[in-house]
Specification:
Blueprint (H helix, E strand, L loop, with lengths): L3 E7 L3 H12 L4 E5 L12 H6 L1 H20 L14 H25 L3 E13 L2 E8 L2 E11 L3 E3 L12 E2 L1 H4 L8 E5 L3 H12 L3 E5 L11 H14 L2 E3 L3 E8 L2 E7 L5 E6 L1 E4 L3 E3 L32 E3 L10 H15 L13 E3 L4 E6 L2 H7 L3 E7 L4 H6 L5 E7 L5 E8 L2 H13 L4 H5 L9 H11 L7
Parallel strand pairs: 1-2, 1-5, 2-3, 5-16, 7-14, 8-9, 8-14, 9-10
Antiparallel strand pairs: 3-4, 4-5, 6-15, 11-12, 12-13, 17-18, 18-21, 19-20, 20-21
Helix pairs in contact: 1-8, 3-4, 3-6
Bound molecules: flavin-adenine dinucleotide and 1,4-dihydronicotinamide adenine dinucleotide.
Flavin-adenine dinucleotide binds next to helix 1, strand 2, helix 2, helix 3 and strand 3.
Amino acid sequence: MSKSFDVVVIGGGPGGYIAAIRAAQLGFNTACIDEWKNSKGGPAPGGTCTNVGCIPSKALLQSSEHVEQAQHHFADHGINLSGVQVDLAKMLARKDTVVKQNNDGILYLFKKNKVTFFHGRGSFAAAKDGAYEIRVAGAAEETITAKHVILATGSNPRALPGAAFDEERILSNDGALRIGGVPKKLGVIGSGVIGLEMGSVWRRLGAEVVVLEALPTFLGAVDEQIAKEAARAFKKQGLKIELGVKIAEVKANADGVAVSYTDSNGGAQILECDRLIVSIGRVPNTIGLNGEAVGLKLDDRGAIAVDDDCRTNLPNVWAVGDVVRGPMLAHKAEEEGVAVAERIAGQHGHVNFNTIPWVIYTSPEIAWVGQTEQQLKAAGRAYKAGTFPFSANGRARALGDTTGMVKFLADAKTDEILGVHIVGPYASELISEAVVAMEFKASAEDIARICHAHPSLSEATKEAALAVDKRTLNF
Ligand code: FAD
Ligand code: NAI
């Protein structure tokens, strides 16, 4: 007889593994199926995020930032180093160790929470007697039965037409995280999150980096004032970003890559580089799921079609994370996973899409929550803005990193916080206060009246809130 579960989760990325843990916590007999293999063919749960996304990219961002500091900024602190050498193999091995710690951590959490883990591909076999038969194809093949199914199969990198990823010359995020030697010249197509993060890593390690972006505006989703400040900082660092280009052709051979494109003035150009990262977005992944066997509906983007509560068109089948609509972020996937497990238990799981933070882990970091100034203008909403520069913050001066600012946007009448935007040191950490504030529908004045530790970067947040009412104390 096949093994039978209350809940089977297909996909063990942040959406799937967190959904499985929460379902088990709620008392369901739960299984999670994930097919990711480590270099030895063993299980490597954690999905894109753990294996080729959030975690390894942040490991390399940290290592390369240390290089940048040692080479260019330690001297400002009176620390003179000469002949700083980078052991790239060791740096990449450290990144792999960090990834493995996270893989192992998830396997431990499955054990701790009594989630049954299957290493292999999960696919629908049939819907039968009010349940679903799921085929698991791993080292062995077996069929298990599920009352509820949560699909969390993630996303894959989008390739440029005619330029398939070979991970040698034309790299997705996967290849971009394991280039064996620092390229002399690195091309990047797409100045989105991956392009900027991975471009920063390899620039800090010594590559000349040229980023080609189709849109005429830089980081269009980011508040314009913040994007401008970031663009200035990236330019100063030597990151070359060309906007408004149209890629014509990409040719790769053993020596390098040639990208033919039209620049924003209509001129024909060729970018020759040693390697090319293509980071032009990601596509939802339903490969091998065999949704057709049960009539699973996809939307016109190829994502699994879901309602606001992550219900698919099939009874008791749910979908979360990158494979459904909404931002492709690990924490969004996690929140949906938790909410779905709670809904299965009859609770009222909830995800507030208005308070999902975004972070770009460049230097300076960029982080935001809520609406941008351009969105408020377009919506005709009356608002007040307040900004405070890190150059006026004592802790930032002590750190030696005074780039950027905190910006508050609040309703003109009620003072409710509508958006907070940060470019500068530790923006990724600072944004949490704004998320909490917005979740509790705080006003800018609420933040302005709260005691913030001195000296801390968070004082810039308080001051930006004070700036909404034009009463900063330190600027
Ligand atoms: P995934 O993490 O993609 O996991 C899906 C899992 O399902 C995979 O393990 C896959 O092998 C498995 N799977 C698929 N089909 C099957 C099947 N049929 N059977 C069994 N297993 C299957 N987000 C952030 O919030 N912060 C960041 O800093 C960040 N950095 C990123 C950096 C890079 C370079 C990239 C590429 C992405 C980054 N992201 C970041 C995005 C983040 O990785 C994704 O939003 C997140 O991983 C989505 O989680 P998920 O669970 O939906 O899917
Ligand atoms: P992205 O959507 O962030 O950026 C893609 C960029 O490529 C856009 O600026 C787009 O205009 C441009 N583009 C698209 N087609 C193009 C073309 N033909 N020629 C030139 N430019 C083109 O996508 P990216 O960077 O691939 O990342 C995918 C997703 O992964 C992100 O949207 C994000 O959800 C997630 N991610 C999150 C991170 C974080 O939270 N820190 C880090 C990295 C990825």
